[in-house]
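for the writeup, i need someone to sanity check this before i put it in the appendix. the sequnce is what the collaborator sent (i think, or maybe the updated version? ugh). structure was predicted straight from it, no edits. if anything looks off just tell me and ill rerun, i have time this weekend
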Amino acid sequence: MPEPPRVDTAQLMELLSVSLGAYYGDFTVAAASENLTASQGKALTVLRRGPAAMRALADTMTCDASNMTGIIDRLEKRGLVRREASASDRRVKTVVLTAEGERVTDAIRARMHATRDGLDRLSDQDRDCLYALLERVFISQPAP
């Protein structure tokens, strides 16, 4: 029996693009349901992992520091984040998610129905495999 054709990198990149587009659309609608822009929602999601310095947050979100300041200003005004002086360098501002910010972030994730429905269609084994593959591709760094 002939082997099925192999999937090349370009095909994987195209499928990732389509997948991320669907995820981003779902995320944008869910963030809007909390009266947030996608960028504000993304900032909350990043901060859900832990506090971050303003510069590191801007780098993670690949945006200009001045744009990050505007995003954080609006989130702070709503009580979703707060700024704190860094313990090691008082000139550095660290952004911390508030309890309300955690609630809103969880609400956004809960409203991402298309993404949740798609992931819920996976078996436990497929879910474990997808997690391992995504971690290997995007998180794990190869040994030097």
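The longest strand covers residues 81-85. The radius of gyration is 18 Å.
thx in advance!!
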